[in-house]
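User: Design a sequence. Structure:
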C-alpha cells in the first residue's frame, strides 16, 4: 500500500536536539537555574521558532526551582540541571548524588512546607525517577503547547 507524503508523516518540531545543561552547587544558585530555564525557552522560541506561552515559561521555571531546591537541600555536592525539547515537551531533568528517592506526600492543606513535589506532580505532563550508578535522576516534562484541559489530565509515567 502506497502512502502519500501527507499520510501520518509528521515533521519533528526541531530537526536536531535542543538542550542545555548546567551544574549548580549552592542554594543561592537556584535563581540562576530559573534564569537558565527562562533564557533557554526564549532561545527555543527566537532561534527555533517554537511557541512558548507565558504560562509554559512560568511553569517550567517553577518546576526547575522546586527540583533544584530539593536536590540542593537533600543531596551532598552539586546537582546537574538539563533542559531538553523532545516530542513537543520541555524535559526538565535534575541529577543529584543522593540515592534516597523522593517521597511524594499526599495533598495536605494543613501541612506547612514539603509541598514542592506535590506542586511538580500537579502541573507536569510526566514525572519519573531513575536510579543512577551514582545518585538519581528526576525528570518532569511540560507540554510546549498550552493545554486548556490541564497538563495533569494527560500525565503518564516515563
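Assistant: Done.
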Amino acid at each position: 500500500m502506497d502512502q502519500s507524503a501527507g499520510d501520518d508523516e509528521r515533521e519533528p518540531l526541531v530537526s536536531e536536539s535542543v538542550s542545555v545543561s548546567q551544574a549548580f552547587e549552592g542554594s543561592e544558585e537556584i535563581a540562576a537555574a530559573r534564569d537558565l530555564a527562562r533564557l533557554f525557552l526564549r532561545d527555543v522560541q527566537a532561534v527555533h521558532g517554537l511557541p512558548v506561552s507565558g504560562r509554559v515559561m512560568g511553569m517550567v521555571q517553577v518546576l526547575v526551582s522546586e527540583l533544584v531546591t530539593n536536590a540542593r537541600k537533600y543531596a551532598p555536592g552539586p546537582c546537574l540541571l538539563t533542559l531538553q525539547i523532545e516530542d513537543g515537551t520541555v524535559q526538565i531533568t535534575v541529577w543529584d548524588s543522593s540515592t534516597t528517592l523522593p517521597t511524594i506526600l499526599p495533598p495536605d492543606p494543613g501541612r506547612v512546607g514539603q509541598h514542592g513535589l506535590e506542586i511538580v506532580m500537579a502541573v507536569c505532563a510526566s514525572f519519573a525517577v531513575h536510579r543512577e550508578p551514582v545518585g538519581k535522576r528526576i525528570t518532569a516534562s511540560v507540554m510546549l503547547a498550552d493545554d486548556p484541559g490541564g497538563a495533569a489530565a494527560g500525565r503518564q509515567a516515563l
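The longest helix spans residues 54-74. Strands lie at 18-24, 79-86, 89-96, 126-131, 136-143, 156-157.
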